[in-house]
């Protein structure tokens, strides 16, 4: 299966709410989704969500597909109305947003997280990870690196399954195929993980951000 991924810098988006809402209203994604975005009170959250949709729009344009109405499942998983053959997923962290677009009768999930070295990662892993994941954290030379690599896999698997994160806490993720990438953005490191219900054969990146490099992660969390 082939996936297309677009990373977009949201710092270039307007800082004024009305300008942001104008951009939201210009997206042909359906009134329900427009209302949901416009109701966001936090401007940063609004810019992040808008950036993800603009990234998705870029991927559709790259395939010469017109944007379509977005609807949500009972647990909130977004999808295109009457177009299950075009699975997608969106994530964001700090000033980067990412969208992934696939094809066929599959489910996708993506998560992007910037590393936060000050986070109490060992304590969090003991609360939220499965036993083998907790052991990987204990053995890792770099706890923050290991934690966010595992956490993005967990979040992406959650989105792929279309279920709540609680289902994936306290156990390992073994239900889908995963590929992880290391992202370096103006000196800050992040991890990006793609999950799919079919084997991922090829990933094409379309990046709209300066000072950005993306490399496939080959090493394991524990050393």
Keywords:
single chain; 223 residues; alpha+beta; Ribosomal Protein L22, Chain A; four-stranded mixed sheet; four-stranded antiparallel sheet; 6 helices; 10 strands; 33% helix
CATH architecture group name: Alpha-Beta Complex
Tally the structural domains: 1
Rg calculated over all Cα atoms: 17 Å
Global structural class: alpha+beta
CATH topology type: Ribosomal Protein L22, Chain A
Mean pLDDT: 89
Order of helices and strands: EHHHEEEEEHHHEEEE
Span between termini: 30 Å
Largest sheet: 4 strands, mixed
Q: What is the name of the CATH superfamily?
A: 4'-phosphopantetheinyl transferase domain
Spatial order of the strands forming the largest sheet: 4-5-1-9
Describe the protein in words.
The chain is α+β, with helices and mostly antiparallel strands. It has a single domain, classed as Ribosomal Protein L22, Chain A (Alpha-Beta Complex). The chain is 33% helix and 28% strand. The protein has six helices and ten strands. The strands form three sheets. Strands 4-5-1-9 form a four-stranded mixed sheet, covered by helices on one side. It has a four-stranded antiparallel sheet with strand order 6-8-7-10, with helices on one face. The chain is globular. The two termini are 30 Å apart. The mean pLDDT is 89.
